[in-house]
Amino acid sequence: MKKIIFSLAMVGMLNASELYRFYDMKTDKIGFLNNKCEFAIQPKFDYADDFREGLAEVRIDGKYGYMDKKGDVVIEPIFDGTYSFKEGLASVEINGKYGYIDKKGDVVIKPIFNKAYSFNEGLARVLLNWKLCYINKKGNVVVEPKFDEVYSFNEGLTPVEINRKYGYIDKKMNIVIEPIFNSAYKFSEGLAHVSLNWKDAYIDKKGNVIMKFDYELIGDFHEGLASVKLFSGKWGFIDKKGDMVIKPIFDNIGSFNEGLAVVNLNGKWGFIDKKGDMVIKPIFDDVNPFNEGLADVELNGKWCFIDKKGNIIIKPTFDKVHAFNKGLAPVKLNGKYGYINNKGEYVLEPKYNKIRHEDDIIIFQNDYMTGCKSVDKEYSLFRLKEVK
Predict the structure, then answer these.
(1) Contact at 8 Å (CB) between 342 and 292?
(2) DSSP state of 323
(3) Which residues contact 41 (CB under 8 A, 6 or more apart)?
(4) Does residue 317 have a pLDDT over 90?
(5) b or e along 365-386 (b: 16 or more beta carbons within 10 Å of the residue's beta carbon)?
(6) Nearest-5° angle of CA 338, CA 344, CA 347?
(7) What mean pLDDT, rounded, does the chain reach?
(8) Mean pLDDT along residues 62-70
(9) pLDDT value of residue 180
(10) Exposed (0-12), middle (13-18) or buried (19+): which is 250, by Cβ within 10 Å?
């Protein structure tokens, strides 16, 4: 099962100000569009990030600063690197060290850190002498540096590394599961995959070992089931008791999504339900999971969409497709990109080099033309503008 990635020149993300970043191929600069497909900020920046708390990072002549929503530079580009503002402060790099500035551009926490991340609930994660710790908004260390690595939180806990062993901490930085594991992964549906004495296991949020295994590979739980690979090379699914509820007879599998999982038998892909019944026969060359009731599949070198009964809803016409998102799916045909709706009708014909869909608009680009299509229920509004 391949992951399809589209080449998108539209670098923007929808934000509270309803401004969309875009890259102008002609000037090699970045600007912003509003949700009426009008230029809110002309393309004039080497780099610009999305707006956070009213300001956006920009790069001019190799240095970083910040602009407001009018496109005016309000914090001069004097920094070697910057992060977005969060809780009124932003991390900046000065001569290889990191500190924090306020929205006036004043340095409020001196640049003494090897790395400094955004504040969250009054605390920021920093590297001090290459050890992870947490500081408050006065720059005082409130959690002493003791972790070699801290990962992302999921379900309220995150794995941490201490002296090459792994445990878990909560959001108050308390160690809630002692670092005794050879490896540790994020929690998913209340359980986490760990390695204890080089044996795979699942633990609960109290650190209790719920299940021990002797599998080659095990995955995270999704919709109550987790994929496992036996040393024989075959795949199956276990439940949260550790029972093998779907026999390991498959050559490859994916996680459950919308009640079905992709499986591979003899080089072809199909779908099973949670009973292990083959509900869509393995006849496809490649597949991706169901999303919004449809799955994109490859059949005889062309991509199409099927429903959960295996019926072809949108004919195998395209060279590449991607999953539906809010009723639209990007498609590629003869080297060009466009969008279809869930009836297979073109919302934007595939004749553009770059495309992107943000809640209210579709942005597209072809050579030196930047286009913008406002999306209403009928997808009827259309504008095309040349970037000068």
Answers:
(1) yes
(2) -
(3) 19, 31, 32, 67, 69, 70, 71
(4) yes
(5) bbeeebbbbebeeebeeeeeee
(6) 40
(7) 86
(8) 94
(9) 95
(10) buried
- The DSSP secondary-structure symbol of 89 reads B
pLDDT at 25: 67
Tokens 């608009």, residue?
361
- Residue ranges of alpha helices (H) inside 180-324 are none
Q: Hey, what amino acid is at 93?
A: E
CA gap 19, 24 in Å, rounded: 15
Longest CA span, the chain: 63
Question: Is-contact 303 254, C-beta < 8 A?
Answer: no
Environment class of residue 61 by beta-carbon count within 10 Å: exposed (0-12), middle (13-18) or buried (19+)? exposed
The answer to whether the Cα torsion of 5, 359, 189, 192 is positive or negative is positive
Tokens representing 287? 């597949």
Q: What is the torsional sign of CA 30, 36, 38, 42?
A: negative
| Strand segments (E) across 12-157 | 19-24, 29-34, 39-45, 47-48, 56-60, 63-67, 73-79, 81-82, 90-94, 97-101, 107-113, 115-120, 123-128, 131-135, 141-147, 149-150
pLDDT at 368: 56
Place of tokens 């923007």: 12
Q: Tell me the two tokens of residue 98.
A: 């990191």
Q: Are 305 and 345 a contacting pair, CB within 8 Å? A: no
Cα gap 231→92, rounded to integer Å:
48
Q: What DSSP line would sit under 37-63, residue for residue?
A: S-EEEEEEESEE---BTTBEEEEETTE
Neighbours of 99 (CB within 10 A): 21
Confidence at 194, pLDDT banded by 50, 70, 90: very high
pLDDT at position 352, please? 86
Token pair listed for 75: 């914090």
Token pair in block for residue 175: 């160690």
How far is residue 143's CA from residue 183's CA, in Å, rounded to a whole number? 23
Q: Is the sign of the CA dihedral 274, 277, 280, 286 positive or negative?
A: positive
Neighbour count for residue 198 (Cβ, 10 Å): 8
For the record, the structure tokens of 275 come out as: 């009973």
Lowest-confidence region among 5-14, 79-88, 108-117, 190-199: 5-14
Pair of tokens at residue 361: 């608009």
pTM: 0.64
